[in-house]
Design a protein that fits this description.
By secondary structure, this protein is mainly alpha-helical. It has a domain of 229 residues: ABC transporter involved in vitamin B12 uptake, BtuC (Orthogonal Bundle). 73% of the residues lie in helices and 4% in strands. Strands 1-2 form a two-stranded antiparallel ribbon.
């Protein structure tokens, strides 16, 4: 019998088989890139765990994490500082996945949920909770999720015309976010001073004061999103080929697109509910990951790893750049993301 010819994928691949079935195929460049990002993120996490009014050496941090040090440093690391690191990694991964989903759906590197305006929806929901319900943490978190979801529904319905066009989604999202921005400013002017201060602090996006109770909802939101993604399957690259090609390959574009849309909104809403609207991580993470891995399109796994790395690095900068004064991490991501957005716009203009 003549053996079947092998497929040449153009670059060296990591292939994992489970019996005779193919379990995993990934380019080695992507594997090494993501491994390097994970190692650097682990180093940054160790450094961040040692920073504070009571400094701890990296060696002592490692000893605490491994259970070899049960001194007061263990309380500082495991109870006070580790939840912040975990939230940074989880929210960064959620923002990266959400950004990759919307950039793939719109087939535009500017198709990020913070550009489309879903974070303004979360902010409007949080402001409503602060003004009406008194501004407890649970009320703000739930209202932020509801606000983000309602904004997504409005943007989706206004953008849908015999299908969901990416450019139309971006334009409608920008218009809706402009309206919500005005509404938010009006609410801030009308509420009491202490409520306005609470709203201003939440709007900046901060990881300060995180504890293990705030880690649980973020983990729950991520698990729900991953469960939906596992049901939908890896069909996002097929959608990027266009509806005609996707339909020819047996994919129902509108149904799959709506499922990814809901997951992307859920992730951005969960992130905003936990730490406030943190901008530009969702915009930059998928594109930076795509460039480093050399992939043809955005990938969810690489975007998640890059998002976690970016937010952790930004939080470390927020902790140290003006120490002992701590900046909100949102201020750092806006600064870095603004520079990246300028670069992205200039790069697109040069291609034209």
């Amino acid at each position: 019998m003549t053996p079947l010819p092998t497929v040449d994928f153009g670059r060296r691949q990591l292939i994992v088989r489970r019996g005779s079935a193919l379990a995993l195929r990934a380019p080695w460049r992507s594997v090494w890139t993501l491994t390097a990002l994970g190692v650097v993120a682990a180093v940054l996490a160790v450094v961040a765990l040692g920073i504070g009014q009571y400094p701890i050496s990296p060696g002592q941090v490692v000893a605490v994490v491994l259970g070899r040090d049960r001194s007061f440093a263990g309380v500082l690391v495991l109870q006070w500082r580790l939840p912040r690191i975990m939230v940074a990694l989880l929210i960064g991964a959620a923002l990266g996945i959400s950004g990759a989903i919307f950039q793939a759906l719109t087939r535009n590197p500017l198709g990020s949920p913070d550009v489309i305006g879903f974070d303004f929806g979360a902010y409007a929901g949080a402001l409503t909770a602060i003004a009406v319900l008194g501004g407890g943490h649970l009320e703000i978190a739930v209202s932020a999720v509801v606000g983000g979801l309602l904004t997504a529904v409005v943007v989706y319905l206004l953008s849908y015309r015999n299908g969901l066009a990416g450019f139309r989604l971006i334009i409608v999202g920008i218009a809706v976010s402009a309206v919500l921005s005005s509404v938010c400013q009006w609410i801030v002017l009308k509420i009491k001073l202490h409520q306005a201060i609470t709203a201003s602090i939440w709007q900046q996006g901060s990881l300060s004061g995180m504890d293990w109770a705030q880690v649980v909802p973020v983990v729950g939101g991520l698990l729900v999103a991953l469960a939906v993604l596992s049901v939908v399957g890896p069909q996002l690259p097929i959608l990027q080929m266009g509806d005609d090609a996707a339909g020819a390959l047996g994919v129902r574009p509108e149904r799959v697109r709506l499922a990814y849309f809901v997951v992307g909104v859920l992730l951005i809403a969960v992130a905003a509910a936990a730490a406030g609207p943190i901008s530009f991580v969702a915009l930059a993470a998928p594109q930076l990951a795509r460039r480093l891995t050399g992939a043809a399109g955005v990938g969810l796994t690489s975007a998640a790893v890059m998002g976690a790395f970016l937010l952790l690095a930004s939080d470390l900068i927020a902790l140290t750049i003006f120490a002992p004064t701590e900046l909100p991490v949102g201020a750092v991501t806006v600064t870095l993301g603004g520079l990246y957005l300028v670069y992205l716009l200039v790069a697109q203009a040069r291609r034209r």
